Amino acid sequence: MATLQSLPPELIIKILEHSIESDLSTTLDWDEKRRRQLRSTSLVARSWTEPSQRLLWRNMAIDCEVKVARLTERTTPRMYRTETLSLAGIAVEPIIALLDHLRGVDDLVMLFR
Fold first, then answer.
1. CA 110 to chain centre
2. Other beta carbons within 10 Å of 31
3. Cβ neighbours of residue 48 closer than 8 Å, sequence gap 6 or more
4. CA 36 remoteness from chain centre
5. Beta bridge partners of 108
6. Which of 60, 61, 82, 101 could form a disulfide with 77 if both were Cys (CB 3.0 to 4.6 A apart)?
7. What is the DSSP string of 37-101?
8. Can you give the pTM of this predicted structure?
9. φ, ψ for residue 79, nearest 5 deg
10. Distance between CA atoms of 110 and 49, rounded to whole angstroms?
């Protein structure tokens, strides 16, 4: 019989993706609730920490320089890949610092006001 700890990370990611998408598909504040749920699921079991954090960092939307500063204050870059990064209303210099802390950004969306 399979236990929670014995599931492969790929299966845990699929379970998390499905549960989060179905639960949040009709909410307005989707991104914040998604982050909260993934933070919670990362505490379920050790085997769920890495898949939850991988999903947490996959798509990021940042709309103020305070969030950029929090992310860049870390001493080491994130080990998880960020596929989509959306930025709005942020100066160029903080963006450059942020990109140094993220790996593998495939899509970068920048909105200037």
1. 17
2. 14
3. 4, 12, 16, 41, 42
4. 10
5. 85
6. 101
7. HHHHHTTT-HHHHHHHHHHHHHEEEE-SHHHHHHHHTSSS--SSB--EEEEES--HHHHHHHHHH
8. 0.70
9. -90, -10
10. 30
Cβ atoms 101, 71 nearer than 8 A: yes
Q: Which residues pair with 59 in a beta bridge?
A: 84
In this predicted structure, what is the pLDDT of residue 77? 60
Structure tokens at 20: 């989060």
Length of the chain in residues, anyone? 113
Cα–Cα dist 100/40, whole Å: 27
Q: 44-81: per-residue pLDDT in tens?
A: 888 899 899 888 888 888 888 888 888 788 656 666 67
DSSP state of 28: S
Write out the two tokens for 102.
């993220």
The answer to whether the beta carbons of residues 63 and 88 sit under 8 Å apart is yes
Alpha-carbon torsion (13, 18, 23, 24), positive or negative? positive
Q: What is the CA radius of gyration of the chain?
A: 15
